[in-house]
Design goal:
By secondary structure, the chain is of the alpha+beta class. It contains eleven helices and eight strands.
């Protein structure tokens, strides 16, 4: 992959949308997304004009009285307010973002689009919107039962018991999700962010720390890197990246999966990553350039 330019080296306006569909584009290229990914100083008038684009989403939503958030886990910025789409009746939960953290909203949407592009079953559907002057990210509601935090409690934080209790399909989903998290430099995928959907499988939430540590000279892709350990405790199984628990146990043979099976599943995702637009990936990195 080529060296990324800083946002001062890139022309933000006007924006030209490429007609070439190869490689495949993940997110739309428009002024709203460029603004959210930019740390350049923009006149407040221009800011308001561009943010009006987001009003279209909220005009199609109505607030519900039930204010419970997604069950079984936590989400960065969650306001615990739910909305119903006036178009198809689907339920969405809102996350509020102040102007100084708008790039987090962009990251949320980018990762959602990337996850859908990679055809992951764990995808969290995200839309950008604004209501009463407050910028919001709308996350599609899915009924969940619990999170892997509950599994850790049941296993009494015993790594072997924890992994052995997971099904082969659950383990496949986890190791495939690791490909996404390492691709976006997200080192906050703890057990509480893996929610069990009522229909089966996991819903993986809260990717707001994507790219946070990409500038860390100590960052490395391994089963012992835990940059949030200084906050939550280096040895806390509840807050360390879940992959730091899963991979060593699979290597010990404490699961029904072999590395050959894992490799086959992961290769399918890697093939789609190779078709990803480098331009889109650069856009996601702009807030950290």
């Amino acid at each position: 992959m080529k060296t990324f330019k800083t946002n001062r080296e890139m022309e933000l306006f006007p924006i030209e949308v490429e007609k070439d569909t190869n490689p495949i584009s993940i997110v739309p290229t428009d002024q709203l997304h460029t603004l959210l990914a930019s740390s350049e100083t923009i006149a407040s008038k221009s800011l308001e004009e561009i943010l009006e684009i987001a009003e279209d989403v909220t005009s199609k939503m109505e607030e519900l009285k039930d204010r419970k958030g997604i069950q079984g886990g936590s989400m960065d910025g969650t306001s615990h307010t739910k909305f119903r789409s006036k178009e198809d009746g689907s339920i969405w939960m809102a996350k509020d973002y102040p102007k100084e953290r708008l790039h987090r909203a962009f990251v949320d949407e980018f990762v959602s689009g990337l996850s859908q592009f990679l055809n992951l079953d764990t995808t969290m559907n995200v839309k950008l919107g604004r209501m009463n002057g407050i910028f919001k990210v709308f996350v599609r509601w899915e009924e969940t039962t619990d999170s892997l935090w509950d599994d850790l409690h049941k296993a009494r934080e015993n790594p072997s018991k924890f992994v052995k209790a997971l099904t082969d399909q659950e383990l496949r989903q986890i190791v495939i999700e690791q490909v996404l998290d390492w691709l976006i430099s997200n080192h906050d995928p703890h057990a509480g962010h893996f929610l069990r959907k009522k229909i089966g499988g996991f819903l993986c939430i809260d990717k707001a720390q994507a790219f946070k540590y990409i500038g860390d000279p100590d960052e490395h892709l391994s089963s012992d890197y835990n940059p949030n350990g200084s906050i939550n405790g280096e040895d806390s199984m509840f807050y360390m990246p879940i992959y730091n628990i899963i991979l060593p146990e699979i290597a010990k043979g404490n699961s029904g999966l072999s590395f050959a099976e894992i490799r086959r599943s992961v290769n399918k995702v890697l093939e789609r990553i190779e078709r990803m637009s480098e331009k889109d990936y650069k856009k996601a990195l702009l807030p950290y350039a």
